[in-house]
RNA sequence: GGCGCUAUCGUCUAAGGGUUAGGACGGAGCCCUCUCAAGGCUCAAAUACGGGUUCGAAUCCCGUUAGCGCUACCA
């Protein structure tokens, strides 16, 4: 039974690298019929905030990829303590009474000699009895792993992505398991939890590849089976550095993509193509195709750059993400798209209950008409505002069309003509427009383009006659007359 | 500094000893056209560098360089 986990620490918003890790874990779990565990690694009480915990749920919830189990590391302190005791009892760990922060001196020493720091002198040899006595006397200490540099010359494991990995134990320092304040470090808590939750595959960022040797030591020390490891290439910012909340800000936040009007699956599709490939030139893959095709073997080893723009206001996201979103927007089943558009219009204050009831057919048809040239859901409330509301802006290019000589008069005349039209259809409107153009000796295009501008506030858009039909006779007559004022 | 990982168009990637090094985004152009998209077609654009191995290397090996990661009583 496959059990995978995503274990974010709630220190800031969920970023897209984390989301990608979650997606890969989720795909693997679903493909294998396994269990997706979400574990909030909130042992760092100082930096954890409820807001970032919520950001994780918001972000993952938005992706529409649900987890099966939820755990909070902070609630599992007893387990971590127990693991520490086991390691100490087995002699895999020892108490280090060196005052916290004293490592600063060793740091200077290390830089001078170039030799790596491995342990604080005189600590790992302290006898158990003396150690117990000092501990009982209340002397503060950190618990460190005793790297088996003599008995185990080399640590090895097979990474599903990076292949065989080996490291000399001589290069592994006596890392901390428990801090002098009694709290477990990441390494201890994470491994103790992974063991307790019976995680079978650890799929995580490549930044943990080197840490894995320490984890091997802990799993072995605990006497539990090692899980399989699969490390993912990192997501990089355009400047080539690892994506980070602090350096790259909101543009790497998952919720920023939600707020920018991305469709969850389009975004999942985009992220799944970063570091993994179906190898057959396909770019658009449904969720089921992703589940079926995903494999750890097809994950590549080089880091991927997310090409977002810091500067741009509208299209700051990676162009391919934008393109994928547009593709889904115009090709997905209209019925599936409607709820997302409804949500967007609600947020923008443009939703009318009738769109979901009496005017539902009109709503679906209109969305279908305008979606082909939209990129994000935001476009429905911005560029598409005129279809759903009477409060819409006339963009500058559209205003220019209306300002052309004679345009306003022609539209007023057209308005009068259309009032008298019995059957208001694309065909009848076109007849009237062309008749008017003929009578006034102007090209039909002049009227057509001006009409589109007056009706939709946009200089560009669908066929003007389709716009007439979508706006309807009453509103069209009004707007044409108004545009002439 | 030490240890490790990686290196194909600007970006995401395919090709894993023999290909005109393929696709996608983005860019340029053409067609279509009431505008703008969409769609169709076309073009420009890459194997980091240097050595090997081999009849033959983007592909295997070594080195260099570059980038990234780890090197905390952060996660």
The end-to-end span amounts to: 72 Å
Helix/strand class? mainly alpha
Question: How many helical stretches?
Answer: 22
How many DSSP-defined strands?
12
Strand order of the largest sheet: 1-2-3
Summed over residues and divided by their number, the pLDDT gives a mean of 91
Oligomer: single chain
Helix content: 40-55%
Q: Report the top-level CATH class of the domain at 345-483.
A: Mainly Alpha
Which fold name corresponds to the CATH topology of the domain at 345-483?
Answer: Arc Repressor Mutant, subunit A
- The biggest beta sheet, please? 3 strands, parallel
Rg to the nearest angstrom? 31 Å
Characterize the structure shown.
The chain is mainly α and 485 residues long. Among the domains are: 78-178, Glutamyl-tRNA Synthetase, domain 3, CATH 3.90.800.10; 345-483, Orthogonal Bundle (Arc Repressor Mutant, subunit A). The chain is 46% helix and 11% strand. It contains 22 helices and twelve strands. It has helices at residues 16-32, 50-63, 77-89, 103-113, 128-136, 186-196, 212-222, 245-248, 254-259, 264-272, 287-293, 319-331, 334-347, 360-370, 378-381, 385-388, 396-402, 407-419, 426-440, 444-456, 464-471, 473-483; strands spanning 3-6, 35-40, 69-72, 93-96, 142-145, 154-159, 163-168, 176-178, 201-205, 228-232, 235-236, 304-305. The strands form five sheets. Strands 1-2-3 form a three-stranded parallel sheet. It has a three-stranded antiparallel sheet with strand order 4-5-8. A two-stranded antiparallel sheet has the order 6-7. Strand 2 (35-40), helix 2 (50-63) and strand 3 (69-72) form a beta-alpha-beta unit. Helix 18 (407-419) runs antiparallel to helix 22 (473-483). The protein starts with a strand and ends with a helix. The mean pLDDT is 91. It binds one RNA strand of 75 nucleotides through helix 4, strand 5, strand 7, strand 8 and helix 6.
């Amino acid at each position: 039974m496959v059990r995978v986990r995503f274990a974010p620490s709630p220190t800031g918003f969920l970023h897209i690298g984390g989301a990608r890790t979650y997606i890969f874990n989720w795909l693997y779990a679903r493909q294998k019929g396994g269990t997706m565990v979400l574990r909030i690694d909130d042992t760092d009480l100082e930096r954890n905030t409820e807001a970032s915990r919520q950001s994780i749920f918001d972000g993952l919830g938005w992706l529409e990829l649900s987890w099966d189990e939820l755990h909070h590391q902070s609630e599992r302190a007893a387990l971590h303590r127990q693991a520490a005791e086991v390691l100490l009892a087995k002699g895999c760990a020892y108490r280090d009474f060196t005052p916290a922060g004293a490592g600063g001196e060793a740091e200077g020493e290390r830089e001078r000699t170039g030799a790596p720091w491995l342990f604080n002198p005189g600590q790992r040899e302290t006898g158990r009895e003396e150690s117990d006595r000092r501990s009982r006397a209340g002397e503060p200490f950190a618990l460190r792993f005793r790297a088996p540099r003599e008995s185990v010359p080399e640590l090895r494991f097979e990474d599903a992505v990076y292949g065989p990995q080996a490291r000399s134990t001589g290069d592994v320092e006596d890392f901390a398991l428990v801090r002098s304040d009694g709290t477990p470090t990441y390494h201890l808590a994470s491994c103790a939890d992974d063991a307790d939750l019976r995680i079978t595959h650890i799929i995580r960022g490549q930044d943990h590849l080197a840490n894995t040797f320490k984890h091997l030591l802990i799993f072995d020390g605990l006497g539990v089976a090692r899980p399989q490891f699969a490390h993912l290439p990192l997501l990089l910012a355009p400047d080539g550095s690892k994506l980070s909340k602090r350096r790259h800000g909101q543009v790497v936040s998952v919720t920023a993509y939600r707020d920018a009007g991305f469709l969850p699956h389009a975004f999942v599709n985009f992220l799944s193509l970063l570091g993994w490939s179906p190898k057959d030139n396909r770019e658009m893959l449904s969720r089921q195709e992703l589940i079926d095709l995903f494999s750890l073997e097809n994950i590549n080893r080089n880091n991927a750059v997310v090409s977002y723009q810091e500067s741009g206001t509208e299209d700051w996201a990676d162009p391919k993400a934008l393109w994928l979103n547009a593709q889904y927007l115009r090709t997905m089943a209209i019925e599936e798209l409607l709820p997302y558009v409804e949500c967007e219009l609600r947020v923008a204050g443009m939703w009318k209950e009738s769109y979901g009831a009496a005017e539902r057919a009109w709503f679906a048809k209109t969305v279908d008409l305008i979606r082909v040239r939209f990129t994000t859901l935001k476009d429905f409330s911005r560029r598409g505002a005129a279809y759903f509301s009477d409060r819409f802006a006339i963009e500058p290019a559209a205003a220019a069309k209306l300002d052309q000589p004679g345009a306003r008069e022609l539209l007023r005349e057209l308005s009068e003509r259309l009032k008298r039209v019995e059957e208001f259809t694309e065909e009848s409107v076109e007849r009237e427009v062309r008749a008017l153009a003929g009578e006034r000796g102007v090209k039909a295009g002049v009227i057509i383009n001006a009409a589109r501008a007056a009706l939709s506030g946009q200089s560009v858009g669908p066929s003007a006659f389709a716009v007439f039909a979508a706006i309807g006779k009453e509103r069209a007559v009004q707007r044409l007359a108004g545009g002439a004022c």
